[in-house]
Amino acid sequence: MEPRRPPRTVSDPKVRQVGFVTPAAAPPARTVSDTAAMPAAGASQELPLSGSSLSPVMIPPPRHDGLSARVTAPVPVPIAATALRLDNLQIRVGSYNQSEVLLGTPPMTSPSSRVEDAVSEFSDDVSASSLYGRTEPDKVGTAFPGRSGDLMPAKSVVAGGSIGGSHTPENPPTTSLVVKTLPGITEKKRGMLEKQHDEAAAPKPLKEKTTKAERRALQEAQRAAKSAAKEGGGADPTNTKKDKVVKPTPQKKDVPEVAASSGKKVDRPLEKERKKEVLPLRMQFDDKHKVEKVKQRAIVNQREAKSRVEFFQRLPQYVHGTQLQELEAKFFQLDAVHPSVYKVGLHHLSGKITGGNARCIAMLLAFKEAIKDYSTPPEKALVRDLNAKISGFVSFLIECRPLSISMGNAIKFLKNRIAKLPLSMSELDAKASIQSDIDRFINQKIIIADKVIVRHAFAKIRDGDVLLTYGLSSVVEMILVYAHEHKKKFRIVIVDSRPKHEGQILLRRLVAKGLNCTYTHINAISYIMHEVTRVFLGAASVLSNGTVYSRVGTACVAMVAKAYRVPVLICCEAYKFHERVQLDSICFNELGDPDAILKVPTHVESYLYGCMDNDNLQLLNLNYDATPSDYVSMIITDYGMVSCNQLLIYCSVF
Amino acid sequence: MPDVQALVNDFVLKIKRRKIEGSQATAKHTAELLRQVVSQQRITYTNQAASLIDAVKAVGEQLIEANPVELAIGNIVRRVLHMIREENVSSAMSAVEELALGSDDDEAEHDNRMGLSAAAVAAAARSTLRAPSLQTLLEDIPDSATAPHPPSSGGDSEGKNKSAAESSSRNKKLKHDVIEAINELIQEIDTCHELISAQAVEHIHQNEVILTLGHSRTVKEFLFAANEKKRSFRVFVAEGAPRYQGHVLAKELVGKGLQTTVITDSAVFAMISRVNMVIVGAHAIMANGGVIAPVGINMVALAAQRHAVPFVVLADCMDYGQLGDSPPIRVENPAFDYVAPKLVSLFITDMGGHSPSYVYRLIADYYSAEDLVVRRKSAP
């Protein structure tokens, strides 16, 4: 399942365009771009929204794209490049004919090459022939466009030749080896070979090129030198021209190839994905066949819990605590998983890191680390390989503990970014860009968002309030501390529940800060609710029908608050929104460790001791529940305070 | 008397240390203690009933004070006071009857019932609060059902007939009657579960999914009874947080072969949408139909209401409590919840199923209006 994801994320926008909801990662990005004037992230995600019309707003700022643009074409406005890129994507969405149009349109700048490349991949024959047609002007005079056009076919030809071996004799003997890998050389041959392999070259080159593409960035210098040497050996005037161009061209070439490859790859799945996209089915654990399949792939051999509650057969239920040691033992055997990801996985598994935000940040940082250490293996494209790699990490994390919705959204974002990487980008730049994307995501979507939420929520706290909160929510904690620091006089009621007792952590922290706290158990909620004036709750996600998906017990608290007419305020960062809908807590949930229920405080030995093997006894430890939207008075997000109804609009807009 | 006082002190201590827990055990112990008190009470010749009432009240106050939250104590005290009054009135009535009708000794056995019910009607009429109640209508049945009482009271009235003037013997009889009545009460406490659980079959059908919270003996026996009738159903047990009695219940249910799932209290809302019926035991029932039950039940009731799941309360006979709209009990560490009557679908008592709006009637049957103040007296 995983390997297929990268293409899907690429195709996401196109498909999403149709649906009423857009990828969850998109909404925050856009808001950020709107509000914080950080269009970089937003730009690419705008795509789905604005199918045909490109508003200037969406164009990524130079800084971001600059990474690629800087190298390729310093002068020719990055805007053009991005715009073209956008067009390019759109073309892929639509008919291939447009590509020809694009070709026809005068691509003035280097970026255009990307477009052409992408185009060329779609219809090799067409592009090749058309390019050839245009090669003439190149030779005559100036142009990048022509050049890029030239290079394409030439390269492809050469590649084809080298593969087939039929044309190799024609290549200069010195570089026969290099030919396969280095595009720079191919250009030289172009002059000679052009005519010959119109037909032969076109079909094959793609594969070869894709493999080459990744290396090129690193080998540019080499190539340049070599090509120069060859030219010196005796070349046409055209070759000399190439010399100058060499620097830019290889990258240009890369772009087309990679784009082509990815484009092609995208195209095929696209059809399938389209169907899939409509109903992104979750793994259903009552489907034995599938479970078996997954198990074979699994790194973590989780033993499944014996007795499962009928309602939750769909969900994975594992015997907790068994796999930790195994995993630790496996540490040195798992090459596929980066150590930092491994560490995060173990932390998730052992419960050392909990909470949507914390888990998400930990995961992203681990990915960042992994990307830092990543190098594209030979014969592979960065975009594809990295995406596959991330997918591998993700499936490892899933095995450790099912993803939270926040993590899912972050992964979606990350993959989107990777897939949208300009293909001309060198590996270093690409990695840097992704890393900065990750940092920006953490900063904007989580840290700054939290700060904004805190400000909003602060406005809702008055002197003399009695605030109730449930469990441990990082945002709520921030709100309370912030309000306390700003001299609000209020009292806090912390409601807690078994088996996690997260509230005790919150209690400890708040009391240490000198806040006036009351601590009670969720069963006493009806008792304590009389004195409460506001209820602040965190959420794991807000679904598009307004249902708040959060730690188990939240629904109870909200329900009782509603019964006592106490306003319920849900604090949730916008990046946690999700387009799924859910009516009850049964359809989707996460099962915790059932044995956690067994241990009863104040009793050394469980009451249930002795009948654990009885098949009639089942223990159910749910992790989440769904709070109906009518229990919620208000949702505080980073774009402000909205009611559930308004939220629906937000969700559908993004 | 000193030994009674010692007993009382002992009992108070036990209650305070929570050695005795659960409304049933408490009720039984209270009744037994009161029986002791009554039997130890010296016979006065002037007003036996009044002195008995005073003695019981004195002890009752101490007991109630020991644990004001355990309503069963107060209820039993009130029940006993009520019985003393009724016995007193009935003996007085029968004496009056004797005078009026002459001696019907021959048919004493038969007539005695009539006399009793007449006495009850008189007792009812005496208190303005009480309209002729269900209890008075049903009076014949329990009396005829409980064998030991009528003969003795019959003997009593006979005795009275013969020596109507001798108040001493009458007083002796009164005391005897009261003790008999208390014995009956104790018996009733014992059998009440059976009566309730006998109705289980009517309420639990095949493949039902039942949710309960905490541990209640009544609920347990209710479920057992249904299980014995080969109904297969599944039970979700919420653990009932501060004390986790749900685990105990789960263990017992599993032992009987019932399919049981233990859930945390916080998961109640999540699971309630798949539940057909919520069955809980009550700690006390208010006259307005509200329920005082282990903490957490209100949450369950609200969730049940949200999902239109029937919320059934199993009520022991000694659970009927307070009159009027009682606010939730406020205890430092809440052990109980107050459930508003609108959240309750049904009460199942030993007398059958009742709607919340009918509870005040049942209460009127059990207590005299005068005794409602027992607790208030003790408060200052």
Automatic annotation (TrEMBL), chain A:
Chain residue ranges for the region called Disordered: 22-61, 129-272
Bias kind Basic and acidic residues: ranges: 186-218, 239-256
Protein's UniProt keywords contain Nucleotide-binding: no
Record text on subunit structure and interactions: Component of the translation initiation factor 2B (eIF2B) complex which is a heterodecamer of two sets of five different subunits: alpha, beta, gamma, delta and epsilon. Subunits alpha, beta and delta comprise a regulatory subcomplex and subunits epsilon and gamma comprise a catalytic subcomplex. Within the complex, the hexameric regulatory complex resides at the center, with the two heterodimeric catalytic subcomplexes bound on opposite sides.
GO cellular component annotations of the record: cytosol
Similarity remark: Belongs to the eIF-2B alpha/beta/delta subunits family.
Protein name: Translation initiation factor eIF2B subunit delta
Keywords: Cytoplasm, Initiation factor, Protein biosynthesis
Domain of life: Eukaryota
Key word Oxidoreductase present: no
Subcellular location as annotated: Cytoplasm, Cytosol
Molecular function via GO: translation initiation factor activity
Chief localisation class: cytoplasm
Automatic annotation (TrEMBL), chain B:
Region (Disordered): 141-173
Swiss-Prot/TrEMBL keywords: Cytoplasm, Initiation factor, Protein biosynthesis
Signal peptide (UniProt feature, chain positions): none
A Pfam family reported for this protein in Swiss-Prot or TrEMBL: IF-2B
Location relative to the cell: Cytoplasm, Cytosol
Gene3D superfamilies: Translation initiation factor eif-2b, domain 2
A single GO cellular-component term on record: eukaryotic translation initiation factor 2B complex
Domain of life where this protein originates: Eukaryota
Residues annotated as transmembrane: none
One GO MF term: translation initiation factor activity
InterPro entries: eIF2B_beta_subunit (IPR051855), IF-2B-related (IPR000649), IF_2B-like_C (IPR042529), NagB/RpiA_transferase-like (IPR037171)
Membership in a protein family: Belongs to the eIF-2B alpha/beta/delta subunits family.
PANTHER family in alphabetical order: TRANSLATION INITIATION FACTOR EIF-2B SUBUNIT BETA
Subunit: Component of the translation initiation factor 2B (eIF2B) complex which is a heterodecamer of two sets of five different subunits: alpha, beta, gamma, delta and epsilon. Subunits alpha, beta and delta comprise a regulatory subcomplex and subunits epsilon and gamma comprise a catalytic subcomplex. Within the complex, the hexameric regulatory complex resides at the center, with the two heterodimeric catalytic subcomplexes bound on opposite sides.
Protein name: Translation initiation factor eIF2B subunit beta
Organism from which the protein derives: Zingiber officinale
